[in-house]
Write a structure and sequence with these properties.
Number of strands: 0
Order of helices and strands: HHHHHHH
Number of helices: 7
Distance between the termini: 131 Å
Helix content: 40-55%
Strand content: under 5%
Largest sheet: none
Number of domains: 2
Length: 180
């Protein structure tokens, strides 16, 4: 009698069961969290740019942000512009730096001057030169700030010297560019 073929044992599995998951190390978990946070921050950045794209912004003038210590009394006055109005405005700028700036008066009790007071002091009695310098200064102010009534009203509208002194310097450059 022939022998039957050997029976296949169905109880033994042919593949090994999956190994239990191993715990991630701390560094592996931190790497995954870092990647997930980077994705979330990138999404937040895009969302912020989309949400604020319609908001009008005014450019920041670095002269308002970047400040350096000034020791104007130790510095010699800069080389003078060759034109008379530009040279007058440059001297007025230097006077404001060294002697101080004030608002509400041409000259205060400490000797500090407003923009027009510095121009008047440096004009040394030449009313035509003083008027030309004040006109150029008003034009420079209006170019930057729009409709301004006068140099004294602009000067008195500021609580610190930074903007008025900078405008006198810019007016000197404008007068030089115009050949005045």
């Amino acid at each position: 009698m022939p022998q039957p073929p050997p029976a296949i044992d169905q109880a033994t599995p042919t593949t090994a069961p999956p190994a239990p998951p191993t715990a991630l190390s701390l560094e592996e978990r931190l790497t995954f969290i870092n990647a997930a946070m980077s994705v979330r921050l990138d999404e937040a950045k895009v969302a912020y740019e989309v949400n604020t794209a319609h908001i009008p912004t005014e450019p920041v003038d670095l002269a308002d942000v970047v400040t350096v210590p000034l020791t104007p009394t130790l510095q010699p006055p800069p080389a003078s512009y060759p034109t008379p109005v530009a040279a007058l405005l440059q001297r007025a700028h230097h006077r404001l730096l060294t002697g101080g700036w004030c608002s509400g008066a041409l000259v205060d009790e400490d000797g500090a001057r407003c923009m027009l007071g510095a121009i008047r002091a440096e004009a040394r009695g030449d009313s035509g030169l003083e008027a030309d310098a004040a006109a150029v200064l008003l034009d420079a102010i209006r170019r930057k700030f729009g409709d301004v009534d006068s140099v004294p009203s602009f000067n008195d509208a500021h609580g610190s010297s930074r903007v008025p002194i900078r405008m006198v310097d810019q007016a000197a450059g404008l007068a030089d560019a115009r050949g005045l």
